[in-house]
Amino acid sequence: MLDYAHLSALAAVVRTGSFERAAQHLNVTPSAISQRIKLLEERLGVVLVVRGQPCTATEVGQRLCQHVEQVAMLESCLHESLPGLGAASRPATLRIAVNADSLATWFIPAMARTEGYLFDLVLDDQDHSAEWLRRGEVAAAVTAHSTPVQGCDCHPLGALRYVATASPGYCSRWFADGVSERAAARAPCLTFNQKDRLQAEWLRQVFGADIHPPLHRLPSSQAFVDAALAGIGWGMNPEPLVIDHLRTGRLVALRPDQPLDIPLFWQQSRIVGSVLAPLTRAVMREAGRFCREPEAETSSSAPQEWKQL
Q: How far is CA 174 from each of CA 200, 207, 210, 217, 280, rounded to the nearest angstrom?
């Protein structure tokens, strides 16, 4: 049998990034934390923590941390279903992988509807967030993958609509003669990071070709909007974040008849499905307020296109 006091010490070190903060979290001394980690490593015969700033888990250490988190979630559910056990000593921590644009639009309201849990969010592109589930590093993920990860349930959330947007001044400079393939290859473009393919997908959708414009990298959903407003570049922004700017003319849609709808899915580990049930209901409700049916047509109330050729 594994010693859960030792496992809790390991999880606290990995979660907080240091032995000192882990000791404060568990109300013990740093030497006690160090001793527990040492005993656990000796028992298993492997290194579990890479000492550094911050401390990180090895592959085996990460698997043990996942086990501790799952046990904590199941115990939390047991306390709720058996009132005689009393309240759990501390709320369960839900580790979730979510893309930045969902976090900036609808995911936080879903969190607010779910009480009694702590959240540990991992930010990753929707095309890559499922990998966190495959590795067992999160309990659930907002992903673009419709095929359920092994051991997971998958729920469709609808499609988050993106609009290619830029400021009027930017369009006057770079698209004065229309949004053409030649102009798009020269006009500076915004991208979130190396994983972000939205702009490339939109260009391929519009022009049927791979176009490689100059890139600004801004790893922030709000910075994306701000950079478009400032005339730094054009980018694919979630419609909920820019709809007011489009209505007032602070931003314009490069091709309002060509939005890009990205279907999203909620995948959750089946093992802790009962624990995640309240969050799953909240996720589906809030996503339904912001996401569209993937087949939905472009709204007739979209802003007029900027000098389309």
A: 18, 17, 19, 19, 44
160-260: CATH superfamily: Periplasmic binding protein-like II (3.40.190.10)
Note whether 5 and 32 are within 8 A (CB). Answer: no
pLDDT of residue 306: 42
**Predicted pLDDT of residue 48:** 93
d(CA 62, CA 74): 18
Q: What residues contact 237, with CB distance under 8 A and at least 6 apart?
A: 162, 163, 165, 224, 225, 228, 251
Closest by CA position to 127, among listed 193, 57, 218: 193
Q: In terms of C-beta density within 10 A (0-12 exposed, 13-18 middle, 19 or more buried), how is residue 143 classed? A: buried
The Cα 17–Cα 62 span in angstroms is 13
The residues, ordered by sequence, that sit 6+ positions from 111 with a Cβ below 8 Å of its Cβ are 119, 279, 282
User: Residues in the chain, how many?
Assistant: 309
268-306 confidence digits (pLDDT tens)? 999 888 888 999 999 999 999 999 986 644 433 334 334
CATH number assigned to the domain with residue range 1-75, chosen from the 4 options 1.10.260.40, 3.10.290.10, 1.10.10.10, 3.30.160.390:
1.10.10.10
Is the pLDDT at 97 greater than 90, yes or no?
yes
Residue span(s) of the chain under CATH 3.40.190.10 come to 160-260
Neighbours of 262 (CB within 10 A): 21
The number of beta carbons lying within 10 Å of the beta carbon of residue 133 is 24
Task: Report the C-alpha dihedral over residues 112, 117, 121, 126, rounded to 10 degrees.
Answer: -70
